[in-house]
Structure formats: C-alpha cells, structure tokens
C-alpha cells in the first residue's frame, strides 16, 4: 500500500488536482488499485451541482488516469516522468458518484510499447461499477 506522500513521489499531481488518497495494490507496469474518498469538501462540488453534489465524470476518469500513472511511473526507467492522456475510448458512466462514496480505482495495463500504452480502467463504488473506460497514454519527460 502507498500513502499520499509515497504517491506524490511517483506522480507529479498535487492538491487540489491530486485525486488519489492511496494505492492499495501495485504491480509496477502491470496493474494498480487506488482509492479516492469523496467528501463534500471537494472544490468541484461548489458548482457541480449546487443543491445536488455529483462528482464530474471527467474527474473520475482523471482519478483512473492518475492510478494508471502511478502504475507506469513506478517503473524505475519512468521515474520522474509525466504520463499524458493519448485517448479515452469506450467510456461508460453507470452510476453517479456523490459525497460519502469511496471510489476504488482499478487500472490494468493491456498494451505497453515503450512510451505508449493502453489501460483498462474501472471505477467502483461499493463493489458496483461507476465508470469504465479504455485509456491510452503517452509517457513524456
């Protein structure tokens, strides 16, 4: 398990845009399972939506991407680099994520060719799929 300080040693994201609280499982370059505890204190809830707080889907995708980044950037050859989105495909939003939910963020790297790759990503709440997608990435300096 990686705590927040250890995550910040691997990926460059910082609050308020760091959307991981911990990594529960990590197999460098292969798969990672992270966690995000969603609270009403998130800055995006001020405007999304007043009176009906719902976590934006794009931020759930970003949390998944950060989990994938932790997986890929934990490879020694990738330390200190940045992972960028190359594409997002087959996105399905299956349920809303609201304050009090705990997102379990699972990413499995399905293709990896040098600086480019693809990951299968699923976000769960209480064991139920909230979002699933295929994420394409590029690793830069």
What do you see in this structure?
This protein is α+β, with helices and mostly antiparallel strands and 141 residues long. The chain has a single domain, classed as Roll (Thiol Ester Dehydrase, Chain A), CATH 3.10.129. Strand 5 and strand 6 form a beta hairpin. The two termini are 26 Å apart. The mean pLDDT is 96.
List keywords for this structure.
Thiol Ester Dehydrase, Chain A, single chain, alpha+beta, 141 residues
What characteristic shape results from the CA principal axes?
A: globular
Strands in their spatial order, largest beta sheet: 1-2-4-5-6-3
Largest sheet: 6 strands, antiparallel
CATH topology, what is it called? Thiol Ester Dehydrase, Chain A
Total domain modules: 1
Q: Which whole number gives the mean pLDDT?
A: 96
Computed structural class: alpha+beta
The low-confidence parts are: none
Count of extended strands: 6
The first-level CATH class is given as: Alpha Beta
Q: Percentage of helical residues? A: 10-25%
Write the layout of secondary structure elements.
Blueprint: H1 4-10, E1 22-27, E2 31-37, H2 57-73, E3 82-93, E4 102-113, E5 116-125, E6 128-140
Antiparallel strand pairs: 1-2, 2-4, 3-6, 4-5, 5-6
């Amino acid at each position: 398990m990686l705590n927040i300080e250890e995550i910040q040693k691997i990926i460059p994201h910082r609050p308020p845009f760091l959307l991981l609280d911990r990594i529960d499982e990590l197999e460098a370059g292969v798969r990672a399972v992270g966690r995000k505890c969603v609270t009403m204190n998130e800055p995006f809830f001020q405007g999304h939506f007043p009176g009906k707080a719902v976590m934006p889907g794009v931020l759930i995708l970003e949390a998944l991407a950060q989990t994938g980044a932790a997986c890929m950037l934990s490879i020694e050859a990738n330390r200190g680099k940045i992972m960028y989105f190359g594409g997002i495909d087959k996105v399905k939003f299956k349920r809303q994520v609201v304050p009090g939910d705990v997102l379990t963020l699972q990413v499995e790297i399905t293709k990896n060719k040098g600086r480019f790759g693809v990951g299968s990503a699923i976000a769960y709440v209480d064991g139920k799929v909230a979002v699933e997608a295929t994420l394409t990435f590029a690793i830069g300096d």
